[in-house]
Amino acid sequence: MKSVEGSSEVNDAALRAWLEPWIDARVAAKVNELKAELRAELRDEERRQEATSSATLGEHASILVFSGDVDRLLSAFIVANGAVAMGLEVSMYFTFWGLTALKKERRFTGKSAAQRLLTAMLPRDAAHAGPSRFNFLGLGRRMLQGMMRANRVESLPDLVSLAREQGVRLVACQMAMGVMGISKEELIEGLEFGGAVTYLGDAARSKVTLFI
Amino acid sequence: MKSVEGSSEVNDAALRAWLEPWIDARVAAKVNELKAELRAELRDEERRQEATSSATLGEHASILVFSGDVDRLLSAFIVANGAVAMGLEVSMYFTFWGLTALKKERRFTGKSAAQRLLTAMLPRDAAHAGPSRFNFLGLGRRMLQGMMRANRVESLPDLVSLAREQGVRLVACQMAMGVMGISKEELIEGLEFGGAVTYLGDAARSKVTLFI
Amino acid sequence: MKSVEGSSEVNDAALRAWLEPWIDARVAAKVNELKAELRAELRDEERRQEATSSATLGEHASILVFSGDVDRLLSAFIVANGAVAMGLEVSMYFTFWGLTALKKERRFTGKSAAQRLLTAMLPRDAAHAGPSRFNFLGLGRRMLQGMMRANRVESLPDLVSLAREQGVRLVACQMAMGVMGISKEELIEGLEFGGAVTYLGDAARSKVTLFI
User: Fold this and answer.
1) Are C198 and C158 found together in one domain?
2) Whether pTM exceeds 0.80
3) Which residues of C touch A117 (CB under 8 A)?
């Protein structure tokens, strides 16, 4: 094969001309394989990202329940139970007057004078929470309850039980419990106790965030 | 070309040494073409994903309007109309006292005693909604209206009309209408009627979710 | 190298058979390099997108503060300060009664009769904001303050200062200031002034959106 080393430029060009289309074809075949492979990876990646993003964003709702008015609490639990039924993960965080929704009884022992006064003024349990308007010493509450029963809308305690059964995360705010002097014994079973960080941990990954 | 088959190892090596840079150059050229092509695809993909993600996430706001106070209703509609003006798709869902914003008149026929009482106590239409503070039998409302007019802030009925014209989705809660005994005839035209599922369907794909 | 041009098909085939595995190996090597390179790019891209998406979605909370009740304002600032501590960027937009949280003193000059009346009826500064329930001419406020001190919960003015120091964006609603006749001199330092567009600009890129 001395002829190769000793070949004239013309002969080199001839060899190249002969080899060129053939080598190009082989390269093209390999490169097309790679292209198909990488494109498939790109598609997989895309699908994975779509799945991740819908998982992270669509599956959580968090409700910060501040109000103790029965009409607002009803709205909060109707939204929460509806969201669970639609497949969202739901957490409710109860602070200040919102703790009323979780109350099963009232106790006066071990409380300061101010806390005892507050306990006396607040509804004894969720069933006694009054509406934000037209309460008139309980008349509005009873009227609303009658109107809801007539329209087969569940009562607040029923909605709370349903939420607990459906796996809604119910968190009572420890700071508010401390300030208002509400003990764990006054609240229903099956609760978690936490602070602002607990709430924010859920809220920061929630699609729906409400303050009620 | 017998010489090829019969060539010594030295000759093979010589041929390879001659072919190597040339073949490499051809492969490199093809591979670079592919690289540019795939990079362009990656960029396109990226742009498409950004567009999709901003479309899914940035384009919807949903407001759950619970309150019937004119100051809160003004806030709700100012936010809604502003959001539409900024290119967001907006839906408002009216429940309990929030239905006041959609009221055009009041009727008493076909209602229970409790519902007639409630009808009498609630504002006859959106223009008569009172503020959350300092209402004093309508004095606060008139004062607020005067102060708003003086500052060229639109009235509630004007803001509602604007929202409807701008294509804000206005949904009245059927459950609340049933409980409170509000008929479709008492509400303005151009509404949709729905339940918690209607609200949650919008909320679950909204970037901005407010309970007002 | 005449022999190439003049070679029989058999000789061509022989040369090809000899070259084929060798060329394929070179192409494969180059293509694998490219593959590794593009895969690295894909990973980078993915990481960059994850970073971007968590930056865009997870890092912002916006609170529309409508209420002037001290209990609601406390909740708003506890959430805001907690969110900043957790690494979120937070903006608070104060409208209507919510402006009370930013008030440092009250002035009567240059206001209409209605605005002077409103000024007289509203708390003179953040420290005098009353709770949403059981206020009884300031008794509830003092009781709540005592209960909070006993539980080492910071006062509203302290929480406002903390928010400002921690870089929470505090925006006062110019429209509400105009309607209610509140001047910049009545509000604390370090505020921004804006409209619905300012709020919506933040809200539209926020993960957590609350109306308080």
Assistant:
1) yes
2) no
3) 143
